[in-house]
Amino acid sequence: KVSYINKELTLKNSAVNERRAILVRFIDPNGMDIFIYHWVGDDYGEGVWKKGHYNKETGALLEAFAKTKVGYTFLSKYAKAGQKIGSIEFKTDGIYHKQNLNFYEFKTRGAASGARIIENKDNLNFNIQLNTVSLDNPGGKESYYVTIGHETLIHIDQVDDNLIEAFHNNKAKFRSLMEKQKENEYNRGDFDHKKYINGDKNYNSFNLYIKQLQKLVNPNLIQKAREKHDENYQKFRKK
């Protein structure tokens, strides 16, 4: 399911914010609104989660992800019938609607967006963390579009099928997969970044998402954001 939790908490260290899953799910279970919780921090790592409001700007960015065929396919795995992201409605229960796909936003300079997976008693949380600190900068919105695709398609979509199957059917395999996942998270997802930048076909969904997104918003600006994104991983390119 994709839903939200009314929750407010304080964290003492922005580094913790990067690595720790905070369960802030922001699709209204009634299928009408998106609720945002903002992390308001300072340069010293102090801050607090503030209950937000419907954010039309970031809501529209997530809606654009859902409007692409690739984005809709990913989200529909977790959605319940009748849920909406903006104008996009999911007609049927997704195969993973009993799992939790969690998006949350924070605004902290020097912190990174990211993805993390957490085990619960009966299901898994797939947490996607989105930093809005650069949203108002030139190219900020386009970068945010790319980041949504990065965290969902380069990271979560690579492991969710195997993890969910093993969680319910093979605990030993699940533990092994989670050990690898935790190591990848600790290394800031570089296992995926290396494969992506070297053209591994399993990461083609991200490339397809960018192409589909360019039909919805300014294609030149999206291409620039994509190029800036890829610059971060050129160090991993095989020569």
The main pleated sheet reads as: 3 strands, antiparallel
Q: Give average pLDDT, whole number.
A: 82
Rg (CA only): 17 Å
Given as residue ranges, the uncertain stretches (5+ residues, pLDDT < 50) are 2-36
Helix-strand string: EHEEHHEEEEEHHHHH
Helical run tally: 8
Which class do the helix and strand fractions yield?
alpha+beta
Strand order of the largest sheet: 1-3-2
Total number of beta strands: 8
Strand content range: 15-25%
Give the CA-based shape: globular
N/C terminus separation: 42 Å
Q: What helical percentage do the residues reach? A: 40-55%
Describe the overall structure.
The protein has 239 residues and is α+β, with helices and mostly antiparallel strands. It is 43% helix and 15% strand. It contains 8 helices and 8 strands. A hairpin with a 2-residue loop joins strand 4 and strand 5. Helix 2 packs across helix 3 and helix 4 packs antiparallel against helix 5. The longest helix is centred in the middle third of the chain and has 30 residues. It is globular, with a radius of gyration of 17 Å.
What is this structure, in a nutshell?
The protein is 43% helix and 15% strand.
Blueprint (SSEs and pairs):
Layout lengths: L9 E2 L2 H6 L17 E5 L5 E5 L4 H12 L1 H8 L7 E2 L2 E2 L10 E7 L7 E6 L4 E8 L8 H30 L1 H16 L3 H8 L6 H10 L5 H13 L8
Parallel strand pairs: 6-8
Antiparallel strand pairs: 1-3, 2-3, 4-5, 7-8
Give structural attributes:
single chain; 239 residues; alpha+beta; three-stranded antiparallel β-sheet; 8 helices; 43% helix; 15% strand; disordered N terminus
